[in-house]
User: Which sequence fits this backbone?
């Protein structure tokens, strides 16, 4: 099922969070029931076959309640996740509305941009500039709405899948963690990203929930480290991880390991000073480049952000 702009507008993420909170309250209440039943059974003085059968039945009921609680937890988590994603999709539609208003137009119920009829200007240059601005507004609004509807469709699909999975809590316990996979960023053509690609990257990042953004930074920092359209603070976090990875990788290079072994066993401290290491080999050059970037960042006064780290060429490039 494809979700349209009107359905995204009508989405109510606060209601999803309210339902999720109610399910979480129910789950905690059922857990208290289990604790009460088991605590009462532990202090009972009743003995015999009937007591054993009763205890077994209570244990079975407690196990079924625990399984149901897993289903409640999965459902509540799926609803919260959907609320975050839906909120991101709605923010894209709101941004498209603002762009349309700034251009004197609006976005209709079908998700089409409507611009007013422009009077013809006497100056052909001004006429061309205004026409170009309108075309850019159309392009930006269409891109934002496309990202919003794609995100809304993904929310609908993933929430349905998670709710169906919650009907089988045993699978939630034994199978992989529930929830949709994080979509990769939009592709960038070779060379510098164009305006459209920058807007697409920004829209993709805005749709992700806060938790998903942290997962991307921790597990896929290469997705965003050099990507225009991503906030500087997030690129900085990703590039710090990439810098640490690169330093760990180069430190394991035989050239670097041998150099530090010579330095550690030499009786003359100046035998392997920094000047002597320059030009010793490509691995040592890369090691020194990475260390220089780290030293600049660690100065801390004023604070610096690492917005780009490119080691594809012979020399390291950093911004």
Assistant:
């Amino acid at each position: 099922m494809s979700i349209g702009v009107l359905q995204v507008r009508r989405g109510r993420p606060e209601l999803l969070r309210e339902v999720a909170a109610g399910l979480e309250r129910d789950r905690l209440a059922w857990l208290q029931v289990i604790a009460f039943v088991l605590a009462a059974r532990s202090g009972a003085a009743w003995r015999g076959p009937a007591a054993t059968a009763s205890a077994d039945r209570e244990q079975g009921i407690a196990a079924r309640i625990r399984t149901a609680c897993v289903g409640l937890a999965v459902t509540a988590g799926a609803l919260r996740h959907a609320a975050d994603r839906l909120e991101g999709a709605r923010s894209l539609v709101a941004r498209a509305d603002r762009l349309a208003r700034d251009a004197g137009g609006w976005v209709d119920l079908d998700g089409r941009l409507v611009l007013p009829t422009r009077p013809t200007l006497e100056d052909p240059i001004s006429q061309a500039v205004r026409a170009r601005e309108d075309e850019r507004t159309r392009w930006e609004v269409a891109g934002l709405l496309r990202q919003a509807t794609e995100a809304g469709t993904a929310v609908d699909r993933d929430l349905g899948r998670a709710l169906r999975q919650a009907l089988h809590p045993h699978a939630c316990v034994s199978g992989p963690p529930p929830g949709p996979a994080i979509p990769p960023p939009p592709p960038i053509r070779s060379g510098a990203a164009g305006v459209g690609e920058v807007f697409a990257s920004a829209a993709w990042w805005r749709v992700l929930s806060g938790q998903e953004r942290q997962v991307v930074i921790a597990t896929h920092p290469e997705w965003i480290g050099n990507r225009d359209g991503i906030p500087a603070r997030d690129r900085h976090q990703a590039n710090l991880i990439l810098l640490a990875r690169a330093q760990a990788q180069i430190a394991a290079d035989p050239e670097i390991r041998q150099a530090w072994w010579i330095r550690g066993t030499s009786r003359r401290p100046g035998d392997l000073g920094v000047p002597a290491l320059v030009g010793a080999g490509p691995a040592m050059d890369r090691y020194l480049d990475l260390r220089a970037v780290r030293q600049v960042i660690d100065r801390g006064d004023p604070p610096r952000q690492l917005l780009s780290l490119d080691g594809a060429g012979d020399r390291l490039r950093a911004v």
